[in-house]
């Protein structure tokens, strides 16, 4: 028989119908780092020059011995969890590079949020805490984890969900439905405050007057105050928001790009103390949680969240900062935390002028001007001068407060709206 | 020749908006000379499923940064990413992290 004349090595590979195979051992996970090809049996990996095993690739089939043969079937061996070494890893953590199974990941994620809360002393026993809930991934994960940690570690907090209804047809309706389901799922009380009840204007109506270009100015300013007002109605001691590490890094970048020193100093803070009447202290328990992990936590836990683009929110500037960060992250996953650290460690030279925080003469909310941003925006809307709050019109605040009429020229400048 | 394979695709986290809002797709990848890998799958998705704004889904020959990929419920970073060879009945999930939170 022909086989009798073949070399023993080949004979060995063909006996018992076993097709030839090659083991490729990589020293790093995910088929990276130094690699070693083993074709025959090996009793001692160190003899073969292998120092550690991160991942194994099995090449089998008739073409396996020919490198580069595309018929080769590559079977990726499942990577094991680096924590329990039992279950199959479900993700690679961007922060640490560790491969974890679902259960070890849940635990690590929750523990890190707990450590953040403890280290920064975010809450005191007995406090009433409002969770800013939008129905999106961040606030849904925040509500879930806060509820869980409050029970696991006996924080003694009274938790509730706080939502803002901006009055955006389609968008807010659906996301508020999600929040209402969250309320049932987590058994937490829910308070919804609407722009309409607070300001007399829905976002839909505002967009009709100001156009799509400037609406995010309104959205952001009004939402901030709306949360405070809702929190005061509910007698909440603190608000926690779902801002994650990616959001904070984005904000650091944006403030650097705009040269906004005052905001740059504030934006990395994990909590704000009460800055005056009408302002409830806020904190960000997810400050060090990566967006990737938040999304995977929600996905693996099958949490119910709502995702769509705010139809009025093109916010191009933040979009660019975001894309830039994501590109950086794909090259170096620690970029996000690195940017946050940079922001935290920036110190501002003595003598740099900082805006003085005062209060709004009309509503008492914090403001560095005579009128707070939201009162100026409202005044503009109510007078049919939507541009009043957009751009710098501080000189006019005195006139508005004393209800003096504006000159014709001033009116003209404030009326024009470009769509 | 590699035989055609049937796979299950899922888009979520807002990525479904680029696919007419449809989250789940059962698709059959046609027979071709070499086995299907994820890189080829992305090209196929772009040519056959993607309805709008491809730049929001792909960048170069990979997915846009910020879109997570899971293969059979595991992070694709553990599975060889673009080089992973698809098997019949595989489940591939794309989740956008870029939509509002
Ligand atoms: Zn594990
Ligand atoms: Zn907006
Ligand atoms: Zn005011």
TrEMBL record, chain A:
A family per Pfam: zn-ribbon_14
Enzyme class: transferase
Enzyme Commission no: 2.7.7.-
Domain Beta/gamma crystallin 'Greek key' positions: 21-60
GO biological process: protein urmylation; tRNA wobble position uridine thiolation
Compartment annotation: Cytoplasm
Keyword flag Cell membrane: no
Keywords: Cytoplasm, Repeat, RNA-binding, Transferase, tRNA processing, tRNA-binding
One Gene Ontology CC term in the entry: mitochondrion
Chief localisation class: cytoplasm
One GO MF term: tRNA binding
Pathway: tRNA modification; 5-methoxycarbonylmethyl-2-thiouridine-tRNA biosynthesis
tRNA-binding among keywords: yes
Protein's job: Plays a central role in 2-thiolation of mcm(5)S(2)U at tRNA wobble positions of tRNA(Lys), tRNA(Glu) and tRNA(Gln). Directly binds tRNAs and probably acts by catalyzing adenylation of tRNAs, an intermediate required for 2-thiolation. It is unclear whether it acts as a sulfurtransferase that transfers sulfur from thiocarboxylated URM1 onto the uridine of tRNAs at wobble position.
Family listed: Belongs to the beta/gamma-crystallin family.
Protein name (database record): Cytoplasmic tRNA 2-thiolation protein 1
Gene that encodes the chain: CTU1
UniProtKB/TrEMBL annotation, chain B:
Pfam families: Urm1
Pathway membership: tRNA modification; 5-methoxycarbonylmethyl-2-thiouridine-tRNA biosynthesis
Intracellular or extracellular location(s): Cytoplasm
One GO cellular component term: cytosol
Major localization listed first in the record, in broad terms: cytoplasm
Record-linked CDD domains: Ubl_Urm1 (cd01764)
Function: Acts as a sulfur carrier required for 2-thiolation of mcm(5)S(2)U at tRNA wobble positions of cytosolic tRNA(Lys), tRNA(Glu) and tRNA(Gln). Serves as sulfur donor in tRNA 2-thiolation reaction by being thiocarboxylated (-COSH) at its C-terminus by MOCS3. The sulfur is then transferred to tRNA to form 2-thiolation of mcm(5)S(2)U. Also acts as a ubiquitin-like protein (UBL) that is covalently conjugated via an isopeptide bond to lysine residues of target proteins.
Protein name: Ubiquitin-related modifier 1
């Amino acid at each position: 028989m022909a086989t009798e004349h073949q070399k023993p090595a080949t004979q060995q590979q063909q006996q018992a119908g076993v097709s030839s195979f090659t083991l490729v051992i990589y020293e790093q996970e995910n088929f990276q780092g130094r690699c070693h090809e083993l074709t025959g049996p090996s009793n001692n990996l160190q003899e073969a020059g292998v120092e550690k095993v991160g991942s194994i690739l099995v090449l089998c089939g008739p073409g396996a011995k020919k490198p580069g043969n595309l018929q080769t079937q590559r079977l990726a061996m499942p990577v094991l969890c680096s924590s329990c070494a039992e279950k199959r890893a479900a993700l690679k953590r961007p922060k640490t590079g560790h491969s974890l199974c679902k259960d070890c990941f849940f635990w690590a994620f929750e523990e890190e949020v707990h450590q953040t809360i403890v280290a920064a002393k975010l809450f005191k026993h007995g406090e009433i805490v409002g969770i800013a809930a939008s129905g999106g991934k961040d606030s849904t994960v925040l509500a879930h984890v806060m509820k869980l940690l409050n029970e696991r570690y006996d924080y003694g907090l009274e938790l509730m969900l706080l939502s803002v209804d901006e009055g955006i047809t389609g968008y807010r309706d659906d996301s508020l439905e999600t929040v209402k389901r969250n309320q049932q799922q987590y058994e937490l009380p829910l308070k919804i405050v609407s722009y309409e009840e607070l300001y007399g204007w829905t976002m839909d109506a505002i967009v009709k007057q100001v156009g799509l270009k400037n609406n995010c100015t309104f959205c952001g300013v009004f939402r901030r105050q709306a949360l405070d007002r809702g929190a005061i109605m509910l007698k909440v001691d603190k608000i926690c928001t779902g801002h994650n590490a990616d959001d904070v890094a984005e904000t650091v970048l944006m403030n650097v790009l705009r040269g906004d020193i005052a905001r740059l100093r504030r934006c990395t803070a994990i909590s704000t103390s009460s800055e005056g009447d009408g302002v409830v202290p806020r904190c960000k328990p997810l400050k060090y949680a990566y967006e990737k992990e938040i999304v995977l936590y929600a996905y693996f836990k099958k949490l119910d969240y709502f995702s769509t683009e705010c139809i009025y929110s093109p916010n191009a500037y933040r979009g660019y900062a975001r894309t830039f960060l994501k590109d950086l992250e794909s090259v170096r996953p620690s970029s996000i935390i690195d940017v946050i650290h940079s922001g935290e460690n920036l110190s501002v030279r003595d003598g740099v002028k900082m805006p003085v925080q005062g209060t709004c003469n009309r509503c008492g909310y914090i403001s560095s001007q005579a009128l707070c941003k939201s009162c100026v925006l409202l005044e503009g809307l109510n007078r049919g001068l939507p541009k009043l709050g957009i751009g710098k019109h501080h000189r006019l605040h005195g006139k508005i407060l004393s209800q003096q009429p504006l000159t014709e020229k001033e009116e003209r400048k404030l009326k024009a709206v470009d769509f | 020749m590699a035989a055609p394979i049937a796979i299950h695709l899922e888009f979520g986290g807002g990525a479904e908006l680029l696919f007419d809002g449809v989250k789940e797709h059962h698709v059959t990848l046609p027979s071709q000379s070499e086995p299907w890998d994820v890189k080829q799958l992305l090209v196929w998705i772009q040519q056959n499923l993607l309805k709008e704004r491809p730049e929001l889904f792909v960048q170069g020959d990979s997915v846009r940064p910020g879109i997570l990929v899971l293969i059979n419920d595991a992070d694709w970073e553990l599975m060889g990413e673009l080089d992973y060879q698809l098997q019949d009945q595989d489940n591939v999930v794309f989740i956008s992290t870029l939509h509002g939170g």
